[in-house]
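Go through this:
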Amino acid sequence: MRRLRFLGLLILTGLLTLQSCSKDNETTVEPQPNNDEVTPETPQTTTSKLSKVNIGDAKFIVKANPNNLKKKSLQKSDKIEKEIEDSFFKITESGNVEPIVFTKEDGSDADFHINGVRVINSDYVYINGWYDGTSSFLVNKKSEKIYGIPLLEGSNEYKFIESGNIIWVYPTNQGYCKINTNDFTIQEYSIDGYVYDLKLNKDGIAFYNSSVGWKVKHPSGKICLMKDIIDNFWYNTTEITNGNQDRFVLNTDGNFYDFHITGNFEYEDGFPSHSIDYITVNRMDINGNSIEKKELTKNTVKWNNPNNYFGQIKGIALNHISNSVLFFVDYDLYGGSETNTNNCYEYNASTNEWNSYHIDIEGLSSDFYQSSSYLFFVSTDRQKLYRLDLVNNYQTKCIDMSGYEIYDIATSLASDDLSFTALRYEDGKNIAGVLNKAGYVESIVEKDSNTKLENIFQLN
């Protein structure tokens, strides 16, 4: 009996021990990973999108190598600001030189390198850079919000035309595109021609060259050949010679004008004495889906001076106040110069009239810059700035810039100031300066001769 009791106790003790070991094994066994799932060693991070750019207080954006930059305020008091790490920086309304900071949606600073800047208008600035797969951005200057435009490749060659909430951008790889700033939708339009010859107006009417000649395209898709609209259409020539030639101009009133020139020479004693041209002005009228020409006026112009030197159309500029088209004629090309010659021919689209003026200039350049009430251009030797008054019969003021080597010029229709970057010969410094309405130069940024201030962009 005692042996049976002892054997039962041993069996009960063994069962309890096995149960206890089984419970211990359940608590210590680690779960095995599922071979179908990949568990990262470190947490995955996502990139926060761009939110803002601090240009709301910017008057200028300047491109330069910022090493050892010396800042100078409009009040002429030297100061050292926060270190600038990018080649683009801003100058504020108060004259401070500050870095341009891109902010992400989470509030942190973004690592963004600017490749180029274009000022569209007082509201929007285009920035060419690279961030999170996008290289083209629009920035609202007032709200400082930034919008990526994935459809556009980053480029410093884009041109912009605004029409209310619409911004047209051209030339793109395919042609041009339309951005609606209400919802930032974008629509692309393609052309069957050469994008580098493209002209575009605020209604999205495109004028471009192709393998079969010049064309006009309506946003609806309709295409017209210019030779079917205007007889003997021949564009893109500057020489005043016998035969037909055309100047196709997008005026400040938003319309395309064709200046169809029919020229011939009059001869005396076997030599040409006058170049007589009959200029017919046609306006391209858009009626629904149709594109038609409307002949406005026909005028006779003698492109020569009293000494019978023939002229060349050196440049065409626009007067946004009177909606006029200005033709500047240079007589030096043919061996002579006449100081009393009318060398500016104006077609006023508002009155449909022609006028001519004498502009007292030397070495007319084809580079024009327009401000609120002036038209500026640089002499061919870049030693003088000429300022034409757009209100008072193009009265001209010559400003001596022989003390500077001008690099870049910028103007704005919101101001009469001209901003520029240049090398100042007097002390060898590179400066960003402003030529004010009185005609005086005021430097706003100075740096040593080792660091060139390449470009300046005037925001307002």
User: Anything to note?
Assistant: The first helix runs from residue 2 to 28. Residues 234-358 form one domain. DSSP finds two helices and 36 strands in the chain.
